[in-house]
Amino acid sequence: MIVANRKPFEEIVEMVKPYHKVLLLGCNECVTVCATGGSKEVAVLASELRLYREKEGQPIEITEHTLERNCDPEYVESLRPMVGNYDAVMSMACGCGIQFVGEHYRDMRVLPAVNTTFDGVTEEQGVWAERCLGCGNCILDKTLGICPVTRCAKSLFNGPCGGSTGGKCEVNKDTPCGWQLIVDRLKEMNLMEKYMEIQPLKDWSTSHGGGPRKRVREDLKL
Amino acid sequence: MNYPTNVKIVKMPCTGRVDIIHVMKAFENGADGVYLAGCLEGECHFLRGNLRAKKRVGHLKELLEECGIGGERVAMYNLSSAQGQRFAEIAREMTEKIRALGPSPIKKHGAELRAQSVTSGEQRAQCAE
């Protein structure tokens, strides 16, 4: 899922400073899973903001509302009857959701309460880690399910760099070397001969490097 | 066994049932301080509920500090249900600590913040009336 973290409180406070009536929006999908922007986190942030603004002598009225998803028009449209009642919308959804709400309500200020970071998995409760950056050309078959684009800090395609020490990446001693993980897996599966297959230069045009991407299924369009 | 009258007790089956928002709401409703009194570590009836509570209190301290209420206004205590004297002692200790800190900063402007948890459902109901 998409993983995000809540912005520092000072930043959030600064963003809502001019407003007295705010709709605080959450999302029931990815940001709920990473405990950043679900209904619980919306309730807590709303509470913090009320307390802070009351203390400052500038009370704020906050309505808490969580959508199933913020990235599908049916859900975002459901806000239409209520959105006009607010000075601004602050969203705890991922960057996709924040933008989509802004696109649907063009005369409404939409503010981000979170920093969207990566696409990842839950390694254990409370720990989320990056796995995919959406390069658009998956080679997980060649690396036995371990991605060199994300798990290697340099996105190398043909083995580790000289900085790989004791199975750890030189960027951070707690980060496993992606290529160490791949080689260990190849050995485990008796497929070390795959390691000798040289991967050609990656064509990054399928990634964001080629510009914002879009996918269309003509057969599904109404 | 006497303890200060300003301590309002909210009974929970386990301190592990206490969620972040419960404590935040207490402060929104005008509490000057909140403490959780859970079982001794290692003796939680539900095994680790009091350990979850301890971590939540740690997180709460950060949240209350950042929104200006003050992390010292929330605390975690551990005691056995047989320790009546310790219960009273904790109540007195927390009361003294909060007295020294003074009333909650939201009372500065002379008005308590009424709990404003207006969800969209409640708002629609209000509009419909």
Calculate the terminal CA-CA distance of chain A, rounded to whole Å: 28 Å
| Total strands of chain B | 3
* Helical content band of chain A: 25-40%
Low-confidence stretches of chain A: none
What is the helix tally of chain B? 4
* Quaternary structure state of the chains depicted: heterodimer
Topology pattern of chain B, helix = H, strand = E: HEHEHEH
Strand order of the largest sheet of chain A: 3-2-4-5
Alpha-beta classification of chain B: mainly alpha
Helix segment tally of chain A? 8
CATH topology (level 3) name of the largest domain in chain A: Rossmann fold
Approximately how much helix is present in the residues of chain B?
Answer: 40-55%
Poorly predicted residue ranges of chain B: 123-129
Shape summary of chain B: globular
| Shape assignment of chain A | elongated
Question: Topology of this protein?
Answer:
The complex is a heterodimer of chains A (222) and B (129).
Chain A: E1 2-6, H1 9-16, E2 21-27, H2 30-33, H3 39-55, E3 61-67, H4 73-77, H5 80-83, E4 88-91, H6 95-104, E5 109-112, E6 114-124, E7 127-132, H7 148-151, E8 168-169, E9 172-176, H8 178-188
Parallel strand pairs in A: 2-3, 2-4, 4-5
Antiparallel strand pairs in A: 1-6, 6-7, 8-9
Chain B: H1 20-28, E1 34-38, H2 49-66, E2 74-78, H3 84-101, E3 118-119, H4 120-128
Parallel strand pairs in B: 1-2
